[in-house]
Amino acid sequence: MKELHFDEVTDGNLAAGEYDLEVTGCKESESANGNDCLDVMFKEVNNAGRHFERFPLVPQALWKLKRFCVAAGIDVSGSVDVADLQQDLVGCCVHAVIEIQEYQGEDRSRVKVFTKIA
């Protein structure tokens, strides 16, 4: 019978630092308070780990999604259909500075800034 060694298991999330990330998936979701969101899943390009980022689709928070899209090379001038944006983002790569922030008593990784890969 196969034996599992849980002492060696990590959650696979990236630690604080700078990484090149590839978008592996996007999906629409709803936050706990009922706001529409775009959930984006990333993997570090050298397979060092993964990252998840949620972008609220509310006017006062669209600046962060816009900065991410610009860093990914996506034209966001005018209006953009969310379904088209999801398709366009998958496979895009960006440089990200990840920091750890406390949220409701838990440490969570969040992207501080997205930029184009040099």
List keywords for this structure.
118 residues, alpha+beta, OB fold (Dihydrolipoamide Acetyltransferase, E2P), 5-stranded antiparallel sheet
Give a brief outline of the structure.
By secondary structure, the chain is an alpha+beta fold.
Description:
With 118 residues, the protein is an alpha+beta fold. 15% of the residues lie in helices and 43% in strands. It is built from two helices and five strands. Strands 3-2-1-4-5 form a five-stranded antiparallel beta sheet. β1 (17-30) and β2 (36-44) form a beta hairpin. The protein is globular and about 55 Å long. The model has no long low-confidence stretch (mean pLDDT 91).
What is the fold's blueprint, element by element?
Elements: E1 17-30, E2 36-44, E3 50-56, H1 62-71, H2 82-89, E4 93-103, E5 106-115
